[in-house]
Automatic annotation (TrEMBL):
An example Gene Ontology biological process: actin filament organization
Keywords: Actin-binding, ATP-binding, Motor protein, Myosin, Nucleotide-binding
Pfam family, one: Myosin_head
GO molecular function: actin filament binding; ATP binding; microfilament motor activity
SMART domains: MYSc (SM00242)
Protein name: Myosin motor domain-containing protein
Upper taxonomic lineage: Eukaryota, Metazoa, Chordata, Craniata, Vertebrata
Domain Myosin motor: 1-179
Length: 179
């Protein structure tokens, strides 16, 4: 992507260069978000990708970068419900429990100091636990604070496999039940 961005920037107008830089920034800003929701600490690696990512760069008829799309797929859905000994769940869960402000905890129904059965090894502190990096990246991608708050809200409700969908609210409903 850096190659296409630099080649495209060298042959297009300044306004086109801004477009290329904006596209590149959005694709790069997607990484912290995808890593928070799709990476976990495993026995082999503190930031092991549990998802696949396919980035497609679109070029216009002059071979200039015009847009990009990212498609992801979760490789390890079982990690939400089970982690091997000494492993951790997806980073986003730890980021929220460690990085939420007192006001956010209250709004998101996330009690201070609570222990959650699907957050093993939460006493470990990793660089990947930085919630503010994820929130800033989400904001740069156009996900405003209000929408972020709705994503991170914990709602305790009845759950069944038939009603489960791949959204953080459902993951929290299932996985953040206290021990």
């Amino acid at each position: 992507m850096k190659f296409y961005a630099s080649v495209a920037a060298s042959v297009i107008s300044p306004k086109g260069n801004e477009t290329v830089e904006r596209i590149e920034k959005r694709v790069l800003d997607s990484n912290p978000v995808m890593e928070a929701f799709g990476n976990a600490c495993t026995l082999r690696n503190n930031n092991s990708s549990r998802f696949g990512k396919y980035i497609q760069l679109q070029l216009d008829r002059f071979h200039h970068l015009s847009s990009a799309s990212i498609q992801t797929f979760l490789l390890e859905k079982t990690r939400v419900a089970y982690q091997a000994p000494n492993e951790r769940n997806f980073h986003i869960f730890y980021q929220i429990t460690k990085g939420a402000t007192a006001e956010e905890r209250l709004e998101w129904n996330l009690p201070e100091g609570a222990h959650y059965r699907w957050l093993p090894n939460s006493e470990r502190n990793l660089d990947e636990d930085c919630f503010e990096v994820t929130r800033d990246a989400m904001f740069h991608l156009g996900i405003d604070r209000s929408t972020q708050n709705n994503i991170f809200k914990v709602r305790y409700k009845a759950w069944s496999p038939q009603s489960c969908c791949c959204c953080l609210e459902c993951l929290f409903s299932v996985g953040f039940l206290q021990k």
